[in-house]
Amino acid sequence: MKEFKIDAQRITPRELNRTIKKAAQDNDRIIIENPNAMHYMVAGLTKPVEVVIDGSAGYFAGTMIHGARVHINGNAGWFPADNMTEGEVIIDGSAGDGVGQGIYGGTVVVRKDVGSRTGEIMKNGTIIVGGNSGFMSGIFMMGGRMIILGDISDDAGESIIRGTIYVGGEIKSLGKNAKIDELEEKERNELKELLESYNFHLEEDKYQRFRKIVPRSARPFYGQESEEGK
Amino acid sequence: MCGIAGVVFKDKDLHPVGRFMTRMLDALQHRGPDSAGFALYGGLGLREHEYLLNIEVKEKPGLLDEVKTKVDTAFPIESEEIIPSVENYIIYRCKVVLESFSQLKPLIMDVDKIDDVIVLNGAHSFEMIKDVGLVKDIAARYNTEDKMGTHAIGHTRFSTESIVDRYHAHPFQSYIIPDITVVHNGQITNYWKIRDPLERKGHVFETNNDTECIVHYIADKLSQNYSLEEALEQSVKDMDGPFSYIVGTPNGVGIAKDQLGLRPGVMAENDEVFAVASEEVALREVMDTSNIEQISPGESRAYTI
To answer: A118 vs chain B: nearest CA distance in angstroms?
Structure first.
């Protein structure tokens, strides 16, 4: 495995991203040292390499990546993995607002709590939160799945159109067009397989307590359900 | 965009709070290049009834003498200092002894009547430093690295309304009660709804800046015996718009965030330090940040010593 290290201490986000893209041509793993919560790290990387951010990231870490696997050892600020199309962003600490905003694919994992509007307008892909998720999580969600192991705050699934939010803890309140359903056994098994693959090992009864938030209607604002081909 | 920060040392001892706040604000420099400011509490060591005035004076023959005469005639000047600034201005600092706090605002308003002169602030328990430009330049100009204190708030400004000058740099201060300051990131969209009742009560507004509105609102609530926590909680209910702001008082620091969570705010706390800021990058300058908390929409936090 070829590895490349970058010291981010005295370079700009633009310089860092340019260096990452160049290093991704002929390395398997890129390690960013001294990230110091810099914004926009690993923006737009389209090579299937592993990138380790050895510390905390600022805003938009891993935005618009396609295929890269980003591991953040610390926390992340707002909008990690924003608009990712394929790949993986794993955050060992906590994260701010808008985790996985608008993702089209790939997987985002945050091991601790996250801020508000998690998974806003996400179209596909998977977001896993090990702790709690804040206000209006899943707002305008259009597809994919979110799995929140802790509690989800007010107005969960606000104006959700498609997709599913699985919640292991308390659901404080639902947003417009959101409703709570029970899980089928098949879904529990899928959750267990997925979560264990990311080293979340839950007690069996925890899986029984999961509920899911889904849309009441696929056409809540205009049009008719029949137009959805159902 | 603006960057805001606050830090409290829980042991109430003096710490190099100027150095810490300089580093916090420098880490937030990317959030606003227009101006920066500090309110450094607890290190001035003024005696009872002593106040420190910061007066912006244009470099013009005779003008500084006119200012000195005006102040000295009202209240004898005990000590003074001149700090060179930029754009042909100096900051004239002087210490005066008043009979009561109620004489401070009239004195400021009287000095403000002189053309090309504006009193940036007058304070008893904190040192106000605010100027145009970058954090490091301002820090060097005012020697913030050497300032000691118990707690502080600070700001880097990205101007979205009001002109860029020293007076509109944050922190803003209210004189409804002594030594209340605010730094702010955002906009108060029901500005007039908040301002009108305060003016009807006789509180004087010097600008049309919404941060001034916040600081008078908070000071008014504190004057009605609200605790800092209660004042912050009520403000989140009363104010509309995207905002997060930090309040400094003689014995604490608090943060509040709008109900939709449209402006950032993070905090970290251990046995020694309570710190709040726009971004983690600032908290890292004063403490370990392996466990930071996001301030939730509509939430407020405070720590008093």
So the answer is: 12
